[in-house]
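Attaching the record inline, Q. Sequence:
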Amino acid sequence: MKNFNFYAPTQVVFGRDAENELASLVKKYGGTKVLVHYGGQSAIKSGLMAKVEKQLSDAGISYVKLGGVVPNPRLSLVRKGIELCKAEGIDFLLAVGGGSVIDSCKAISSGRFFDGDVWDLYLHKTFATEYLPIGCILTIPAAGSEMSNGSVITNDEVDGWLKKDYCVDEFRCKFAIMNPELTFTLPAWQTACGITDMMMHTMERYFSKDDDMETTDAIAESILRTCMTEGHKVMENPTDYISRANIMWAGSVAHNDITGCGTTGDWATHNIEHELSGMFDVSHGAGLAAVWGSWARYSREENMPRFARFARNVMGIDTTGMSDIEAAEAGIQAMERFFSSIGMPTNIHTLVGKEISDAEIEEMADKCTTGDTQTIGGLKILKKADIIKIYQMAK
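Structure, as predicted:
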């Protein structure tokens, strides 16, 4: 069991009409001039943006807006946000959307006072020392960014694009408003990608060499079972409030670090997928589903009993009479069947719609390891050659 420091300072306001508390929350956390950051037209068409603007105006809180966030949020828009904050004297950031919007807000927060190129933070060359506070209204449960310390940004200013993360506690939102009703109109694809992402946030922490933190393991297993059970329900009935609420809360708990307390996480699947979505601009959750099975088969010998436990406790497989390797394979296959049942791909060809080339695999593996100068993974330490093999297995 590893020592750990669990820090989850975000105030969560959850339930029907939770967004009505927006103005009081902004004031509580010191906001007087707000940048409202959002994605496309859905927040406008739904009436949510109008409600946000009215609340801020009625409370005497000044604001400016910046839309245009897309999945795999772009560095070019982050730069616009930073300049807008400087020009307008913004002192608080409000993300209205899902993980991409929140991640973009976090990047703007880190760059507002930084005397340098914000991309250097994501390249881990240095750290910022001052950040703008952030709040969010969550409309897409998936990334868990509303309670996490991480942000992932895609650099669209370089050939081939590059996707990198930056993680600091200052990124944790001051408040997260979560009304499950705001997710009723999500398309089935976004819902499925979100369920996959939150499950993978849990599984990245669960597949560890540390086997003596039963409390943490039990929490992780419960979240995974809940995501599958409620996920099927919400795919069948998108306006099922109870199922939407369970999925929404699972997404936050999956990535606020509680499912990793006392263990060492892996995160190889995320790193491998980041290069896929960086190169092909695919949905993050779908990319995770496409490569997870190959990663699992390549890495499982590092802790085969853990994969056998996963088969029993999460996938509900009766492993009586099975060896650990048989149980592990049964569990991996069951997880892939679940992904398929909610419309997720389980290989790269299905994900991107074509056969990827050896050159593309080489480039992704090179970026993933920064030219084979870094390793990834906590369960199995992976070098560039290992990652190439996993991409090939996942083709």
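The first strand starts at residue 11 and ends at 14. The first helix runs from residue 22 to 28.

More tomorrow.
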